[in-house]
Design a protein that fits this description.
Strand content: 15-25%
CATH topology of the largest domain: Rossmann fold
Helix content: 25-40%
Number of helices: 16
CATH architecture of the largest domain: 3-Layer(aba) Sandwich
Distance between the termini: 63 Å
Structural class: alpha/beta
Shape: globular
Largest sheet: 5 strands, mixed
Length: 384
């Protein structure tokens, strides 16, 4: 007997894996197949029944089958701001990952409830910096006698706890598009920056946009005593980078760039600043997700683009711009496993629950954490 669609278990992603891939990445050779088509009608019906009571946000890295139901698409901070701009919607369904839903909860009104369709949709980068680890790091800086000179800056891709840590200490949140402005602000306040949790964005911004030398940056490893640094290294450094990275963007290598240039004459290599420094140096252009989208949109017909960012977005750009040759930078076809946890079965389940008056998988940041995290987010909004 055929099992009704409504009784299907929530889908697990990944038909295989690449031994070289990191946690948070699957490289099965192709994206997972679309979910059962019957779920499309159920999603439409549930969304129509909810009407203006629900606001669905979709991150650029989401699957097409999910993104079609988003009222707004964008990067993590744009989506959080969009949620805050819709106070009349009591329900915000965030099709992204956990830290994004947390930011939406922090920035939305108290009466709004944020739902993450699958609680397993996390972020390996955000997980690389825990509150206890960062508190210990700060103690190391205090013992080294330099904490008073350090301004903490955290990337948007961090937990609410880390944003609150930064807010308590007068720091700021940044995105990949405003990292330089955030660092300019921080260096006007102090002599050094503790940059969390993505070392590559911090290094690329400091060296390529601010004129720092590589030797001005040191990496704090939370798994080693004193971060693996001597007091002299900490004292001499201008930028203390957390040992974290994006598992997807971290896969791209200079060899990937060299290979695509050999295969595709005249190709433009466009990468995200979360990529390794050597990859960014080898690329033609580097920028945020929004920058990547706008660059491809404005590119002339017939041009070729090898893009170093998440696979769903690259494939969508290729589909939307058939007059251009848009390809994934790496030969191995890899996607963000945790971002792909938000599939149509999970979205339908969460929407239909709301239709019944049940709020499932609500993301709620405690009041104190939200207060200090918002201080860091508001400081970002106030950047010149």
């Amino acid at each position: 007997m055929t099992t009704p669609v409504r009784d299907l278990p929530l889908l697990l992603l990944g038909a295989g894996s690449d031994p070289a891939s990191e946690r948070g990445v699957d490289c099965p050779g192709e994206l997972p197949p679309a979910s059962d088509p019957a779920l499309v009608e159920r999603a439409r019906a549930a969304k129509a029944a909810l009407g203006d009571r629900v606001f669905v946000l979709g991150h650029h890295y989401q699957r097409d089958e999910v993104i079609q139901f988003a009222d707004v698409t964008g990067d993590s901070f744009k989506l959080a701001r969009e949620a805050a701009a819709r106070p009349d919607a009591p329900y915000v369904v965030f099709c992204g990952v956990h830290f994004m839903a947390e930011s939406a909860d922090i920035l939305t009104a108290p009466h709004q409830q944020v739902v993450l369709p699958d609680l397993a949709a996390g972020c390996s980068m955000a997980d690389m910096a825990t509150f206890d680890q960062v508190e210990e790091c700060w103690e190391v800086l205090e013992e080294a006698g330099i904490a008073d000179e350090v301004v903490p800056v955290t990337y948007m891709n961090s937990s609410a706890d880390i944003k609150a840590f930064v807010g308590r200490r007068g720091g700021v949140v940044c995105t990949s598009s405003n990292a330089k402005r955030a660092l300019d602000w921080a260096y006007a306040k102090g002599k050094k920056v503790l940059f969390l949790p993505d070392q590559h964005l911090g290094r690329n911004t400091a060296v390529l946009e601010m004129g720092f030398e590589l030797d001005d940056c040191v990496v704090y490893n939370p798994h080693r005593p004193d971060g693996g640094l001597t007091r002299a290294q900490m004292a001499d450094a201008k930028m203390i980078l957390w040992r974290g990275h994006c598992s997807v963007h971290g896969r791209f290598s200079k060899a990937s760039v060299d290979d695509v240039r050999a295969r595709v004459p005249g190709v433009n290599v466009l990468v995200h600043p979360e990529c390794q420094h050597e990859v960014v140096l080898a690329a033609d252009l580097v920028g945020s997700t929004e920058y990547i989208i706008k660059t491809v949109e404005a590119a002339p017909a017939g041009s070729s683009w090898a893009i170093g960012t998440e696979l769903n977005l690259v494939r969508r750009l290729a589909t939307e711009h058939p007059d251009k040759n848009v390809m994934f930078l790496d030969k191995a076809v890899c996607f963000c496993s945790t971002m792909n946890r938000i599939d149509l079965p999970h979205l339908v389940w969460s929407l239909e629950a709301l239709v019944r008056g049940e709020v499932v998988n609500r993301i709620q940041v405690d009041e104190e954490t939200a207060h200090y995290a918002r201080a860091a987010l508001d400081q970002m909004l106030a950047l010149p």
